[in-house]
Structures are given as structure tokens and as C-alpha cells.
Amino acid sequence: MHLASGAYAAVADFRNLLYDSRVIAAVRAPVPVVSIGGLTAGGSGKTPITSDLARRLSDAGVVTAILTHGFEDELEVHRHLCPEALVFGGRDRLGLARAAAEAGAELIVLDSGFQYRRLHRDLDIVAVDDTVLARPVHRLPAGPFREGLAALARADLLVRVERSVRAPAGHSSVTEAAPGTMLRGVAGGLETPPLIVARIRPGRLVAITESAGRIDTPCPRVAVAGVMWPDVFFSQASQATASVVETLALRDHANIREAAVVRLRDLAGEEGIVCTLKDASKLARSVGGDVPIWYLSESVNWVDSGTPPAVVRAALSLLPSAAVADSSVREVGI
User: Fold this and answer.
1) Structural domain tally of the chain?
2) Which one of 33, 115, 185, 228 is CB 3.0 to 4.6 Å from 43, fit for a cystine?
3) Could you tell me the CATH number of the domain that includes residue 29?
């Protein structure tokens, strides 16, 4: 497995070198592009931050498009969290960027775009989750990291994502250790990009099936997560409701097989299931509306005294001066 990781790292690093040295040139989109990326294959908080930024830009009067890999669950999340945005999904995100511009987008937010260097980005934002930084930096496939910490020097802005969860098993407190780990990881004495903090906090349980909607006080028995770090969600779910006694981790983006459906219905009973928003529609379709199912909502809170937050101001600065002047006079909704 380590040999495979070495081969992956060699190919990825060589490809980055070609872009860094401009042997391969990134292609500009017709409108400004903001990338929300990460170092790992998942679990950095990229999707909620992407939707939050797109919603704030839309609230400021900017016609905003979100580009994703094309997984249906990701598309559903963005459409739910930011219904005002244009949402496009697919592997050819350069083509999607052109399509978004033709559809009227004034600014594009690229979800999980740090490694998609074919498309030029005018603002490269990298999200690094505390819970990810607490783990060993092993490259794919031995670990979750697409790039090492030294790649942070390529970013324009770093977002340290804080979650109100207990440290993963076998690790010390991540909240105190993470900033130093991040800064030491930028190799070669390069200047660290500006750092801001986003706190992603669990909110209320939202009913997604009719049977859940009829229950005044949710007490789900099972927590289900099909994400990169299910233990993080399980910790959040346990803090949100003490009724959870069973957990089930699904593969990221995977369809739910019949055996898993049978097991879930058996475990859930009349109490039901709590899941991520990403898994909500998939679970409701697979398990059925007679099983109470809720998703655990999240909020993104920027540790920033400015209005709008620095990340929004940075994105607005990419637009023509007239557009910035028009949008900046209105406070962006929380």
C-alpha cells in the first residue's frame, strides 16, 4: 500500500510541478472563479463552506454558480442550501464553467477544486479541518491526503475549520494542536497564506420523511453517515441527541444495498434515523417514508469581525468595481 501511495504522490507532485513551472497553463473561465479546496479526498468541510459562500454572494446580489464533481448527493446538498445559485456537476469543470457563464453566472465557486488545476482560479481557498490535521499525513491510497501540508503555500487563503466534536480515538486534543501543525507543515520557509477560522456547528434535526414530521420530539435510535469521517458525524449526532445507540457508516457516494436497507429498518424501529444532509434523500428513497428520518443541520460561523466576512469580501473583490460597490452596501444574511 505504501508503494502505491509513493507512486500516487510522485505522479501528483510531478503534475503540480508542470503547472507551477507553467509548462502546462491553466485555462481562464469567462468569469472569476473561487475554488474551495482541501488536502484530503474528503472531510475538510469544503461542501458546507462552498454553499455558505455561494449563499452569501447570492444574498449580496451576485449571480453565483457552484461547480461540483457531479455526484447526485452533492448536487442535492448545494441546491438545498443555496437554492438561488446555479448548480452544475460533472468531471469537465472547465466546460461547466463556460456553461455557467453562458447561463448568466457572474462568479463561480468551485467545490473541491484545489487539485483541479486545469481551470484557472482567481482565488484559491483551502479548508483544513482540525479533525483531519489530527491524523497522520499519508497520501492516497494508504491515507486520505491528496497532497502534503507543503501544498498549503499554494493557497491564497486558508480556512481552519473547527467542529465541536471530541478528538478522534487515539489522538490528543485537535483544537489546540492544529494551528501549529498547519504552520509547521508549510515547507521550505515559504510565507503562510492568511488564515481565517470557520466554525461548523451542528444545529437542529430536520424531518425528511412524513413519519418524522409527525413526531414532536425526535429521538432517533440510529446515526448513519456516508462521509469520509463518519466518526466525526457520529460524535456530533450523539451530542445533538442522547437517543442514538447504534451507528452505521456507509461508503461515500455509494448506493444503499438491499441488505443495508433491511438492517437499517430493523435497527431504526419506531424511533428512526438521524443522518447527514448529504445522505438524507438517498436514505429516504431507499429505506422508505414510513421510517422516521431526520438530517442534522449545520451552520457555518465565520470568526471575523467584518461584515460581510473576509471570505466574502475577497470573492467580491474579483468582480468589477461597480458590482462590488453595489453589493457591498447590503449586509449579507447569516
Assistant:
1) 2
2) 228
3) 3.40.50
